Amino acid sequence: MIIFILILSSCGTRKYTVKSDTKASKAADAMASLKSKPLYRFINDWAGVKYRFGGLDKSGIDCSGFAFLLEKEIYGVTLPRISREQANFARKKSINNLEEGDLVFFSFGGGSVDHVGIYLNNGFFVHASTTRGVIVDDLNLPAYQRALVKTGSVN
Protein backbone atom coordinates (compact mmCIF):
# COMPACT_ATOMS: atom_id res chain seq x y z
CA MET A 1 0.00 0.00 0.00
CA ILE A 2 2.80 2.43 0.85
CA ILE A 3 4.50 1.75 -2.50
CA PHE A 4 1.22 2.44 -4.31
CA ILE A 5 0.86 5.80 -2.51
CA LEU A 6 4.46 6.73 -3.33
CA ILE A 7 3.90 5.98 -7.01
CA LEU A 8 0.74 8.08 -7.13
CA SER A 9 2.30 10.99 -5.30
CA SER A 10 5.36 10.97 -7.54
CA CYS A 11 3.15 11.54 -10.59
CA GLY A 12 1.97 14.82 -9.12
CA THR A 13 5.50 16.21 -8.84
CA ARG A 14 6.32 15.97 -12.53
CA LYS A 15 6.71 19.39 -14.17
CA TYR A 16 5.42 20.02 -17.67
CA THR A 17 7.03 22.70 -19.79
CA VAL A 18 6.77 23.90 -23.37
CA LYS A 19 9.98 23.60 -25.31
CA SER A 20 11.16 27.10 -26.12
CA ASP A 21 12.02 26.16 -29.69
CA THR A 22 8.58 24.92 -30.71
CA LYS A 23 6.56 26.62 -33.41
CA ALA A 24 3.87 27.53 -30.88
CA SER A 25 6.32 29.15 -28.48
CA LYS A 26 7.96 31.11 -31.30
CA ALA A 27 4.54 32.32 -32.48
CA ALA A 28 3.73 33.35 -28.91
CA ASP A 29 7.04 35.24 -28.75
CA ALA A 30 6.17 37.05 -32.00
CA MET A 31 2.83 38.09 -30.51
CA ALA A 32 4.46 39.22 -27.26
CA SER A 33 6.95 41.32 -29.25
CA LEU A 34 4.31 43.33 -31.13
CA LYS A 35 4.79 47.09 -30.80
CA SER A 36 1.08 47.79 -31.33
CA LYS A 37 -1.13 46.68 -28.47
CA PRO A 38 -4.28 47.28 -30.57
CA LEU A 39 -2.82 44.88 -33.16
CA TYR A 40 -2.18 42.31 -30.41
CA ARG A 41 -5.78 42.62 -29.19
CA PHE A 42 -7.18 42.45 -32.74
CA ILE A 43 -5.30 39.23 -33.51
CA ASN A 44 -6.29 37.65 -30.19
CA ASP A 45 -9.90 38.62 -30.79
CA TRP A 46 -9.91 36.94 -34.23
CA ALA A 47 -7.63 33.96 -33.46
CA GLY A 48 -9.27 30.68 -34.39
CA VAL A 49 -12.12 32.19 -36.40
CA LYS A 50 -12.75 29.66 -39.16
CA TYR A 51 -12.07 30.32 -42.82
CA ARG A 52 -15.01 31.04 -45.09
CA PHE A 53 -14.52 32.19 -48.68
CA GLY A 54 -15.99 35.68 -49.01
CA GLY A 55 -16.51 35.87 -45.24
CA LEU A 56 -16.09 39.13 -43.40
CA ASP A 57 -17.22 38.43 -39.83
CA LYS A 58 -16.61 36.10 -36.89
CA SER A 59 -18.78 33.37 -38.38
CA GLY A 60 -16.05 32.97 -41.00
CA ILE A 61 -13.50 35.12 -42.80
CA ASP A 62 -11.19 34.75 -45.77
CA CYS A 63 -7.59 35.97 -46.01
CA SER A 64 -8.28 39.18 -47.91
CA GLY A 65 -11.22 40.02 -45.65
CA PHE A 66 -9.01 39.58 -42.60
CA ALA A 67 -6.31 41.83 -44.11
CA PHE A 68 -9.00 44.34 -45.14
CA LEU A 69 -10.44 44.56 -41.61
CA LEU A 70 -7.08 44.57 -39.82
CA GLU A 71 -5.55 47.32 -41.95
CA LYS A 72 -8.68 49.46 -41.66
CA GLU A 73 -9.13 49.07 -37.89
CA ILE A 74 -5.49 49.16 -36.81
CA TYR A 75 -3.86 51.46 -39.39
CA GLY A 76 -6.80 53.39 -40.87
CA VAL A 77 -5.98 52.15 -44.40
CA THR A 78 -8.79 51.03 -46.69
CA LEU A 79 -7.52 48.18 -48.85
CA PRO A 80 -9.29 46.70 -51.84
CA ARG A 81 -11.28 43.61 -50.84
CA ILE A 82 -9.54 41.00 -53.06
CA SER A 83 -5.97 39.76 -52.35
CA ARG A 84 -4.82 40.21 -55.96
CA GLU A 85 -5.98 43.86 -55.87
CA GLN A 86 -4.41 44.31 -52.42
CA ALA A 87 -1.09 43.18 -53.93
CA ASN A 88 -1.44 45.83 -56.66
CA PHE A 89 -2.27 48.46 -54.02
CA ALA A 90 0.77 47.69 -51.83
CA ARG A 91 4.14 49.32 -52.49
CA LYS A 92 6.75 46.62 -53.05
CA LYS A 93 9.14 46.15 -50.16
CA SER A 94 12.06 43.80 -49.60
CA ILE A 95 11.33 40.84 -47.35
CA ASN A 96 14.39 41.84 -45.31
CA ASN A 97 12.84 45.24 -44.54
CA LEU A 98 9.36 44.09 -43.50
CA GLU A 99 7.82 45.81 -40.51
CA GLU A 100 4.82 45.11 -38.35
CA GLY A 101 1.65 45.57 -40.41
CA ASP A 102 3.24 45.05 -43.84
CA LEU A 103 1.58 42.60 -46.21
CA VAL A 104 2.86 39.29 -47.56
CA PHE A 105 1.33 37.84 -50.72
CA PHE A 106 1.31 34.27 -51.98
CA SER A 107 0.38 32.30 -55.06
CA PHE A 108 -0.48 28.75 -54.09
CA GLY A 109 -2.24 28.14 -57.40
CA GLY A 110 0.85 28.96 -59.45
CA GLY A 111 -0.67 32.00 -61.15
CA SER A 112 -1.62 35.36 -59.70
CA VAL A 113 -1.81 36.27 -56.02
CA ASP A 114 -4.38 34.14 -54.21
CA HIS A 115 -3.48 34.59 -50.54
CA VAL A 116 -2.45 37.43 -48.20
CA GLY A 117 -1.18 37.74 -44.65
CA ILE A 118 0.04 40.50 -42.36
CA TYR A 119 3.66 40.50 -41.22
CA LEU A 120 4.30 40.68 -37.48
CA ASN A 121 8.01 40.26 -36.68
CA ASN A 122 10.81 37.71 -36.47
CA GLY A 123 9.56 35.90 -39.58
CA PHE A 124 5.97 35.44 -38.36
CA PHE A 125 2.74 36.62 -39.93
CA VAL A 126 -0.98 36.34 -39.24
CA HIS A 127 -3.50 35.19 -41.83
CA ALA A 128 -6.78 33.37 -42.34
CA SER A 129 -5.67 29.86 -43.25
CA THR A 130 -8.12 27.83 -45.32
CA THR A 131 -7.62 24.82 -43.02
CA ARG A 132 -6.84 26.37 -39.62
CA GLY A 133 -8.66 29.70 -39.61
CA VAL A 134 -7.02 32.87 -38.28
CA ILE A 135 -3.57 31.88 -37.06
CA VAL A 136 -0.04 33.18 -36.51
CA ASP A 137 2.32 31.26 -38.80
CA ASP A 138 6.01 31.00 -39.65
CA LEU A 139 6.85 32.69 -42.95
CA ASN A 140 10.06 30.65 -43.17
CA LEU A 141 8.23 27.35 -43.64
CA PRO A 142 9.09 25.88 -47.05
CA ALA A 143 5.45 25.90 -48.25
CA TYR A 144 5.22 29.66 -47.66
CA GLN A 145 8.67 30.37 -49.09
CA ARG A 146 7.78 28.53 -52.32
CA ALA A 147 4.49 30.42 -52.69
CA LEU A 148 5.64 33.91 -51.62
CA VAL A 149 5.38 36.29 -54.58
CA LYS A 150 5.38 39.80 -53.10
CA THR A 151 5.88 41.70 -49.88
CA GLY A 152 4.72 45.25 -49.50
CA SER A 153 3.61 48.16 -47.39
CA VAL A 154 0.43 50.20 -47.31
CA ASN A 155 1.30 52.30 -44.25
CATH homologous superfamily, by name?
endopeptidase domain like (from Nostoc punctiforme)
Overall strand count:
8
What class, by secondary structure content?
alpha+beta
Relative helix content: 25-40%
**Oligomeric grouping of the chains:** single chain
What would you call the shape?
globular
CATH class type: Alpha Beta
Report the uncertain regions: 1-18
What is the typical, i.e. mean, pLDDT?
A: 88
Largest sheet: 6 strands, antiparallel
Helix-strand topology string: HHHEEHHEEEEEHE
Strand content: 15-25%
Major β-sheet strand ordering: 3-8-4-5-6-7
Family: Belongs to the peptidase C40 family.
Keywords: Hydrolase, Protease, Signal, Thiol protease
Domain NlpC/P60: 33-155
Pfam families: NLPC_P60
What descriptors fit this protein?
6-stranded antiparallel sheet, Papain-like_cys_pep_sf, 155 residues, NLP_P60_dom, signal, globular, hydrolase, 8 strands, alpha+beta, endopeptidase fold (from Nostoc punctiforme), protease, two-stranded antiparallel ribbon
Q: Can you put this structure into words, describing what you see?
A:
The chain has 155 residues and is of the alpha+beta class. It has a single domain (23-153), classed as endopeptidase domain like (from Nostoc punctiforme) (endopeptidase fold (from Nostoc punctiforme), Alpha-Beta Complex), CATH 3.90.1720.10. Helices cover 36% and strands 23% of the residues. It contains six helices and eight strands, in the order αααββααβββββαβ. The chain has helices at 2-11, 23-32, 37-46, 63-75, 83-89, 142-147; strands at residues 56-57, 60-61, 91-92, 103-106, 115-121, 124-129, 133-138, 148-153. The strands form two sheets. It has a six-stranded antiparallel sheet. A two-stranded antiparallel ribbon has the order 1-2. The chain is globular, with a radius of gyration of 19 Å. Pfam families: NLPC_P60 (PF00877). Residues 33-155 form the NlpC/P60 domain. Belongs to the peptidase C40 family. Keywords: Hydrolase, Protease, Signal, Thiol protease.
